[in-house]
Amino acid sequence: MAEVSAEARIEAPAEKVWGRLTDFSSYGEWNATHTSFPRGGPAELELAATYEENMKLMGFPAEVMWTVDGLEEGRLLATRGKGPMGVNLAMRYSLTPEGDATTMRIDGEFTGAAVSLMGGKLKDSATAALQESLRKLGGLVTS
Questions:
Q1: In this structure, which of 42, 89, 111, 132 has its CB flanked by the most CB atoms within 10 Å?
Q2: Distinct helix (H) and strand (E) counts, the chain
Q3: Is the pTM of this model over 0.90?
Q4: Nearest C-alpha neighbor of 81 from the set 59, 124, 49
Q5: What pLDDT, on the 0 to 100 scale, is given for residue 104?
Q6: 50-57, strands of its sheet edge to edge
Q7: CA-to-CA distance for 75 and 60, rounded, in angstroms?
Q8: CA 103, CA 115: separation in Å to the nearest integer?
Q9: Vertex 16, ends 32 and 131: CA angle to 5°?
């Protein structure tokens, strides 16, 4: 298993950060691993909603089928996904309002046989991607 996380204080209210986080049409503007949603994001953002995402992890393309398994409007978006080579993923985006600013934390988890073969490199690559994503997201909502 590989676990990764990143956290940043974003100088924008949580509603604005949440709006960008859940605007699936703009993921390419900030999410460092995202390449496309072949059929668009989830039709309705609700528990058990599913959607497919094409990603790039460690420079390799990956297709992931996501299911929303945690949702608290303005505060939490948690998903579980099935990727290539039996890899399972979990992503948790949590927002903590702090007046006119927001602390956003992203936690990710990768499990499966292939993960044990590339655990260290995957962890480093995914952590760097999360940090870059938070930096880009922060730039979009504060400009």
A1: 89
A2: 2, 7
A3: yes
A4: 49
A5: 98
A6: 2-10, 101-111, 88-98, 76-82, 60-72, 50-57, 34-36
A7: 31
A8: 29
A9: 25
For residue 1, how many other CB atoms are within 10 A of its CB? 11
For residues 96 and 142, give the distance between their C-alpha atoms in angstroms, rounded to a whole number: 16
CATH architecture of 2-142: 2-Layer Sandwich (3.30)
Pairwise CA distance, residues 6 & 4, whole Å: 7
* Model pLDDT for residues 83-129, shown as the tens digit of each residue: 988 899 999 999 999 999 999 999 999 998 777 777 678 888 999 99
Query: For residue 79, which amino acid is it?
Result: T
Strand-strand pairing, 34-36 and 60-72? unpaired
Look over the chain and give the mean of its residue pLDDT values, rounded to a whole number.
93
* Residue 122, pLDDT score: 82
